[in-house]
Write a structure and sequence with these properties.
Layout (H helix, E strand, L loop, with lengths): L46 H10 L3 H20 L10 H14 L10 H7 L6 E5 L5 H8 L3 E6 L2 H13 L4 E5 L12 E7 L4 H11 E12 L13 H5 L3 E9 L13 E8 L2
The structure holds S-adenosylmethionine.
S-adenosylmethionine binds next to α3 and α5.
Length: 276
């Protein structure tokens, strides 16, 4: 496909932009990293700003009453020996996701992630890694398309579901229960790595980049950081985490997250390639 401005033909390169940065046809919603507007600045609103808004709205007394009440509740809880919220360990994550995948809520999508579908349709099938594959919706999709897939997850319930689904169709999926922080990613192994709706890219970035073959592609989709800081990546953080990869696409938008349809919020999509 030809870039409308620089006329460079990138059809063999799976690019979403011409060399000059102009979006190519079919990539209308993608925007170059450098062109992103500062539209997310307001997301990480500080407590001071929140307080200021209450004052502007003319409710300082109501707010301070709430604040005092909250402080009293906290002090009471602490003096009663209450524990701070539990830290997520691999074991607690395993249990949490085992419960979710046993219930299999209807809101969790079972079809493949659309960004991955789009990317895979432009690549020749090779060797793929699905990190935190859940019950395998994306790994199974890739395997059906002829990719040789390794997928792992901390949840044995998820892994077993994926393994059975692959077995039923005789698909090339190697599924195992692994902790992503202990997995042996290796060097130059994969043509495609999927990191979909997964946290902690900052802790794994180096290993993920190393694990890509030259020319290999990394696909990430996740929530943008929630205003309360509870989930997701900071605006514009992903390209900085992978400085050795060429960014093919970076977009932040309000479209529905392509995972749990009840868990709505802003989304970041990131596609990058290792130099050949
Ligand atoms: C939001 S789900 C995403 C699943 C899948 N990527 C998808 O898009 O369908 C997050 C997944 O991360 C897995 N997970 C959480 N911590 C993990 C860890 N330390 N190692 C491997 N998988 C982990 C969970 O079990 C769960 O399947």
């Amino acid at each position: 496909m030809k870039c409308p401005r620089c006329q460079q033909d990138n059809s063999t390169e799976q690019k979403f932009y011409g060399e000059c940065g102009t979006p190519l046809a079919g990539a209308a919603r993608a925007r170059p990293y450098a062109d992103l507007k500062d539209e997310n600045e307001g997301l990480s609103r500080s407590l001071t700003e929140a307080l200021e808004q209450h004052r502007v709205a003319g409710k300082p007394r109501a707010f301070s009453r709430c604040f005092v009440a909250l402080a009293v509740v906290l002090c009471t809880a602490l003096s009663a020996g209450a524990q701070p919220p539990a830290v997520r360990t691999p074991e607690s994550e395993r249990e949490r996701w085992n419960q979710i995948f046993t219930r299999q809520p209807a809101s969790i999508r079972t079809d493949a992630n659309r960004l991955l579908v789009q990317v895979a349709s432009e690549l020749v099938p090779g060797v793929a890694l699905d990190i935190g594959m859940g019950f395998g919706r994306n790994a199974i999709f890739l395997a059906r398309r002829g990719w040789r897939v390794t997928g792992f997850d901390i949840s044995d319930v998820g892994v077993e579901k994926a393994r059975l689904a692959a077995q039923a169709e005789n698909l090339p999926l190697t599924a195992s229960r692994e902790d992503m922080f202990k997995f042996d990613y290796g060097l130059n192994r994969y043509d495609l790595i999927a990191f979909l709706y997964m946290p902690a890219a900052d802790r794994l970035a180096r290993q993920i980049a190393d694990a890509l073959k030259p020319g290999g592609v990394l696909v990430i989709e996740h929530f943008l950081r929630r205003p309360d800081g509870s989930l997701g990546y900071e605006s514009r953080a992903l390209p900085k985490l992978f400085p050795t990869l060429e960014v093919l696409r970076y977009a932040e938008d309000d479209s529905n997250p392509d995972y749990d349809q009840e868990n709505v919020g802003r989304v970041v999509r990131f596609l990058a390639r290792k130099a050949r």
